[in-house]
Specification:
Na+/H+ antiporter like fold; 10 helices
Length: 246
Amino acid sequence: MPVAAYALTVALSLPTELAIGVVLVGAAPGGTASNVMTYLGKGDVALSVAITTVTTLAAPIVMPAWVVFLAGEQLNVTFAQMFSSIVQVVFLPVVAGFALRYVLDRKAPDVAEAGLDVFPAVSVVAIVAIVAAVVGLSKATILTAGAAVAVAVVAHNAIGLGTGYGVGRLTGMSEDRTRTCAFEVGLQNSGLAVALATSFFSPVAALPPALFSVWHNVTGPALASYFSRNEPAASGGSVAPVSGDD
């Protein structure tokens, strides 16, 4: 996904700030929406949760490394600065979430159960507000380069979903795990990319990940709906989906 993102920015001759935004999306780990889509699409949810967890915990190292490698000459930010920011934005909240759920499950299971309904709604409202703010601050850019950014976002998402599924098939995975790979590769944590873009670059750089947030919440459910109508030939382990969104 990082390489595909970089290739698209070159092919579409995107301005520097927009190109950085696309690369940030490509370098981001999988989003938790992939877990829900995997569940709805009758994939292997246990595998999906494992992949999302591992890529998220690795993000403080992997994401800055990709961004510096692909766009280093255009950056005024260091690996260490991005590492620190990702730890604060992603790593610490994930660890805190695991700890909170562990305590609530044992001390207040009713509160833990209620949280499964409350926190996803809070997440959705936050994402909508962030996307609206980014789009509002980038009106001029949308008018001048909106088409190219839209093409990059749509193509990038399609490449992720297609190659994730295709590699699964080529390597002989079961159908449920192949579906999982499609969602894990195609649905990025664009919320993290938006946060880094606004922190270190500009609202313009945040535009591609903001649009990706909207678009992958169209393609993800559409693909999950298609998969749900076609039972996998061989199903792996499945657990209840992780609630939340990126």
